[in-house]
Design a protein that fits this description.
Layout (H helix, E strand, L loop, with lengths): L1 H17 L6 H15 L3 H14 L4 H46 L27 E5 L4 E5 L5 E5 L5 E6 L15 E4 L2 E3 L15
Helix pairs in contact: 1-2, 1-3, 2-3, 2-4, 3-4
């Protein structure tokens, strides 16, 4: 689906890379296609095409216009990314609040975000890119020490899901990345500044 969406852009970029610079119509055609993409709200694709244009045909009139447009496009994309990041953080905060209320009532976190619907959330939020959030509940201390009266300390398995990881994996749905593809990570409702979650304690009990 993603490849189909980008097919016209990929075709034009391939044409741009392979055609002779003797064709005076190509820079103007590329610029016009990039302008249309921007008007359709596909600013990232428009920006990529205009950058290719300025690199391939730096002396063309179309490239000069593209340079002027890129200044505005870069500012727009940066502002758009900041707005989407705010939306992501707001959605994650709603999920974290619902998880806290669920645990307060059930004594542990749910195995799935869908378990929060409809009592704690009307529906499970998605990212602005219509991607699901990553959620993983786990047991923070699978083996507990239990002090028995007048006896030795014993160990027992803890089976309650008392911790969770919650993440937005950015536009690429992959760990890591920068810009719009950057991850936002929460563990037990608190932000994590690391690039990845720490490993969950093992062995996790079988439920």
């Amino acid at each position: 689906m993603l490849r189909a969406r980008f097919a016209p852009v990929l075709a034009l970029l391939a044409l741009l890379a392979g055609c002779s610079s003797e064709d005076p119509r190509l820079p103007a055609n590329i610029y016009e296609e990039a302008r249309k993409l921007n008007l359709e709200g596909r600013s990232l694709e428009a920006r990529a095409m205009m950058r290719q244009l300025t690199q391939r045909y730096p002396d063309s009139d179309a490239a000069q216009q593209a340079r002027r447009d890129l200044f505005l496009l870069d500012a727009f994309v940066a502002r758009d990314q900041a707005d989407r990041q705010k939306q992501v953080r707001a959605a994650m905060r709603r999920i974290a609040d619902a998880l806290t209320r669920y645990k307060g009532r059930k004594g542990e976190y749910p195995g799935s975000l869908q378990d929060l619907v409809p009592e704690y959330l009307d529906q499970v939020p998605e990212t602005p890119w219509k991607h699901p959030f990553f959620y993983r509940a786990f047991v923070s201390k699978p083996i507990e020490d239990v002090q028995v009266k007048r006896g030795p300390v014993r160990q027992r398995f803890n089976t309650k899901l008392d911790s969770y990881d919650l993440a937005c994996l950015g536009t690429d749905l992959k760990p890591g990345g920068d810009g719009a593809a950057a991850d936002i990570l929460l563990q037990d409702g608190e932000p994590i500044d690391e690039k990845a979650f720490p490993p969950i304690p093992q062995p996790q009990p079988v439920r």
